[in-house]
Amino acid sequence: MDLTREAGLKRLSEFVAGPLANYASCRNLDLGNDRHTEVVSKLSPYIRMRLVLESEVIAASLTRFPAQTISKWIDEVIWRTYWKGWLEQSPQVWTSYVTAIAQLEQEGWRERVNYTEAISGKSGIACIDHWVRELKDTGYLHNHARMWFASIWIFTLQLPWELGADFFLRHLLDGDAAANTLSWRWVAGLHTPGKRYVASASNIERWTEGRVRVTETLATEAEAFKRAPQDADYKPTAESILELNSAFNSDPRRTLLIHPEDLAIEYSSLATEDFDAIVVLDCSKTVLATFFSDAIMHAHRQALEDCIHRTETHFGTQVFRLSPDEVNPFAQDQGSHSWVCIKPVVGIWQDAWRPYFAKQSIEFVQREWDQILYPFARKGFFQFKKSAWDTDLVLQKT
What we know:
- It is a single chain.
- The protein has 398 residues and is mainly alpha-helical.
- It is 48% helix and 6% strand.
- The protein has helices spanning 5-17, 23-26, 44-48, 54-62, 71-89, 91-106, 113-119, 126-138, 143-156, 161-171, 177-188, 201-207, 288-291, 294-315, 327-334, 348-357, 368-373, 381-390, and strands at 254-258, 277-281, 319-322, 338-342, 362-365.
- Strand 4 (338-342), helix 16 and strand 5 (362-365) form a beta-alpha-beta unit.
């Protein structure tokens, strides 16, 4: 996959002109890796790194179809915003997940045969083994396959959901802390109390049009795996959103800091401002390089190079590419100044950056999309959807 803004916009144009017309009826079909783009957009990696913006995706779609005709597609675009807004307001859920991973590692789960077999495509359940290979080879799985995979992982293979979420996060090109973690929690029955998702052979065969046959016995609702981590019933509140840093440095010199979760800075409120220096944060030389798959790190580097080229063209100045541990020395060389940065979201990237930012005066700004929509993500998606659709933002009302 060519992870550049130009490639993302090209894919968006192709999707709007083709599969979007039948998205509502075909979106649940997993036709296999070679045919995914016949029914779904595969725009998620571009949206994940904000090479293409959510508002751009919806705007392009609305140029061809009225909102009600493509309501399922619009909902799908804002699902990722819902997950991000929810986790921003309940960051302790992410902390709980990270703590659980560490505990499972201490218990030796990564050395257990059933876990190592599962992530090696040798679980003995043919569909799971196929999806493991597809995920590792392509960095992508159809959304329906992700649900089936998570259900079988938890309820049939009886593996901890956290390790499944960790496996996905290491390999998915579109994986982010919110969508990935909360989707696994939802399947496990932890996100919506009393509800969990249990995959069935008939459902898998139906939505793969018989391409995937399940001959193994899968867990049923009654047989569902009972091991569930202790987990509080978190309820997001507006008050728990992490506050933006408003303690600005009085020095007028400003450095723009761009991070890999928001790489279309020329299409933000910062695009018309002046900066004394511009830095793109490159985490490929940190511990994250050993966490993520080679495919993800290659995509990360490609997307950063694209961002640097576009940013230099837009601002007409050199962009410095720094690893996180080079930020503080760079700041010392620059002298007294302040940093400006689009606010990173809760998750593994933010965790990796936090120690390096501790000594800097950073002005975090938030995109209008996030600022308006995140506070709606306090309960279920359908209440979020209603509030989002009522804004002028999502449906491009004037």
